[in-house]
Design a protein that fits this description.
This protein is of the alpha+beta class. Helix content is 58%, strand content 11%. It has helices at 9-13, 19-27, 44-76, 89-100, 119-132, 134-141, 145-152, 155-166, 280-317, 329-366, 373-412, 422-430, 440-452, 455-464, 473-496, 499-528, 530-557; strands at 79-81, 84-86, 171-174, 190-194, 199-210, 216-222, 233-239, 245-250, 261-274, 319-320, 323-324. Strands 3, 4, 5, 6, 7, 8 and 9 form a 7-stranded mixed β-sheet that branches. A hairpin with a 2-residue loop joins β10 and β11 (323-324). The chain is globular, with a radius of gyration of 24 Å. The model has no long low-confidence stretch (mean pLDDT 97).
């Protein structure tokens, strides 16, 4: 029987990373809950076994329920009835299966009914679900919004809402509006305090809200009258049971049809303040978005994997000119690049997730006691690494998902343009990944300061110090030359002294940075598990080399006066 976890040993490989021991020890507080909760691990090895069992269950549900339902969900999509969103019929089967399998609220502490899973393992489950159906992954993975409520809500709110998510209720984050998309400072949904009923009331419209008719919403609203920027925004919790919010419209989208995208009208809707006023955008949404961006990276890797699977299977079966097309150089070149991007992108995803896990666990511990000096230094280190790696993981994997889905259609030839083949749906689904939760251009904006201040270069130089297998040393030498090229390009940028030039070339620096980091990550993976990754390391380093050299040549020849040629 198919299983989306065990069929892909590359996922389990990332459970063996050396940082996992530190992550698990922090998450489990040195296993103090083993006598209190039956499912709590007794030691590190037991925790890893628990993770494998959960991922095995996820892989089974994904392969044998969610994926077989995906075509029907794509064709039917959600419906609007009397101001309510109704999921596609088979989505209810997916929800029922994942609830019965205990796959809800899994990142939350056990005292609320969760499984206390690290973000790394949640990301693995998210990747697996996305490979089966990216649209349903949106519905399922938005449970991670509860992490923000856990971090910033009161204990009363935690006890009220977290067990409901652990039992399978759904969530959404209501941020964007008709006039506030990427620029969330323009949010105008009004929040006013109702003195008589001791609650907040929300009025206005939200647009492009994923899973917008969910059970529990986190809502960004303007609580400070007369303000027009982010300092007047706060975060609120809206409970669907209280009423006051209707679905006005469900968007008809290119892809991810199983994921309802709603326009909502708030009419005096009762809400609770989450955290403090004025910190909604400045603090809480930033935390929420970083988690969401890692979720989209996982979703992207899942679709990268499925696109590769579809292309590989077709190439093995399809014959032309008396030979299977997988034996044609043009085809196996394409397939090898698809697999290399998948393996490198997945390595970047889980490296980022591990950094997030360490700093999040230390932040959680800091709510209980004061951190010592070493812990504070560790928190600072991994917060910085997570902040630097998250825009790379989201941006590059979302682009790779689009590229792999495109190439899967190319491998299928004319059949890829026919609706009966899955690759067309993967192509339609993937297109949103580089748009929502911050476009790739916004990921570049988030990352560029780490380019210009030398943070990425220092990280790369530190990564260069790791040893690789003898068979991989020639590849490592090629990467070393790319690092020199990168440093020269940075010097060229500094010499220009132009902010406009920096902004114009930012995307190229972003891609150079990611290409080199992923090259080093895949070399490390291939050193540990050559049977899984050595081929991809050979392909990816060559691919990165071509990308970096081309970008560097462009940067070296670019002058400030050239900008005029590009303006409309």
């Amino acid at each position: 029987m198919a299983n989306y976890y065990t069929d892909h040993p590359e996922i389990a490989f990332h459970l063996n990373h050396p940082l996992m021991k530190r992550i698990v020890d922090l998450k489990e507080r040195n296993y103090v809950e083993k006598d209190q909760f039956e499912d709590a691990p007794v030691d590190y090895e037991d925790a890893i076994e628990n993770y494998k069992q959960l991922l095995d269950i996820t892989g089974d549900v994904a392969a044998n329920i969610i994926e077989p339902n995906s075509e029907a969900v794509d064709l039917e999509g959600p419906h609007l009835e009397n101001g309510r969103m109704i999921y596609a019929s088979k989505t209810y089967e997916n929800l029922d299966a994942t609830r019965k399998a205990g796959l809800w609220g899994i990142s939350m502490p056990r005292r609320y009914g969760g499984l206390n899973l690290p973000n790394t393992v949640f990301s693995m489950a998210s990747e697996i679900v996305a490979a089966a159906d990216a649209g349903f992954q949106n519905v399922w993975s938005l449970q991670s919004c509860i992490d923000t409520l856990y971090e910033f809500g009161s204990e009363e709110q935690r006890e009220k809402y977290i067990p409901r998510i652990c039992q399978g209720e759904t969530m959404s984050m209501d941020l964007t509006e008709p006039d506030a998309g990427s620029d969330l400072q323009r949010v105008m949904l009004k929040a006013t305090f109702d003195e008589e009923n001791n609650c907040w009331r929300l009025n206005g419209v939200k647009r492009f809200i994923t899973n917008g008719d969910s059970d529990i919403h986190l809502v960004l609203a303007r609580s400070e009258e007369g303000t027009k920027d982010g300092r007047g925004l706060s975060m609120f919790i809206y409970d669907k049971r209280d009423g006051g919010v209707d679905v006005r419209h469900i968007e008809h989208k290119l892809g991810i049809h199983g994921s309802p995208t709603c326009e909502l009208t708030y009419k005096n809707a009762k809400a609770e303040l989450c955290g403090s006023t004025r910190l909604g955008l400045i603090k809480y949404v930033m935390a929420l978005m970083n988690g969401a961006r890692l979720g989209i990276a996982a979703q992207s890797v899942g679709v990268e994997q499925e696109a590769y699977n579809e292309a590989l299977a077709y190439a093995k079966e399809r014959a032309q000119f008396g030979e299977k097309i997988i034996n044609f150089p043009a085809v196996y070149d394409m397939l090898s690049r698809m697999k290399a991007k998948l393996d490198a992108g997945r390595s970047l995803l889980y490296q980022t997730a591990r950094y997030v896990d360490i700093y999040k666990a230390l932040e959680d511990i800091a709510r209980e006691r004061k951190l010592d000096a070493d812990e504070r230094a560790e928190l600072k280190k991994y917060t910085r690494l997570a902040d630097a790696f998250t825009p790379l993981a989201k941006g590059m994997n979302s682009e790779y998902a689009n590229q792999n889905a495109y190439d899967a259609i190319s491998v299928h030839g004319g059949s890829g343009f026919i609706m009966e083949y899955k690759c067309q749906r993967l192509f339609r689904d993937a297109r949103i990944f580089s748009i929502y939760e911050g476009t790739t251009q916004l990921q570049v904006v988030a990352a560029i300061r780490y380019v210009t201040n030398g943070t990425y270069l220092n990280i790369i130089k530190e990564m260069m110090e790791s040893e690789v297998a003898d068979s991989l040393k020639p590849l490592k030498a090629r990467v070393a030359k790319l690092v020199e090229t990168y440093e020269q390009a940075l010097n060229t940028l500094k010499e220009s002294g132009s902010q406009d030039v920096q902004d114009f070339l930012a995307r190229r620096f972003y891609e150079i940075t990611a290409d080199i980091i992923m090259s080093l990550l895949i070399l490390d993976d291939a050193t540990v598990a050559p049977e899984l990754f050595e081929k991809s390391a050979n392909v990816y380093v060559r691919y990165a080399e071509a990308e970096v050299v081309a970008h560097a040549a462009y940067i070296a020849s670019f002058k400030a006066e050239d900008l005029e040629s590009f303006k409309a």
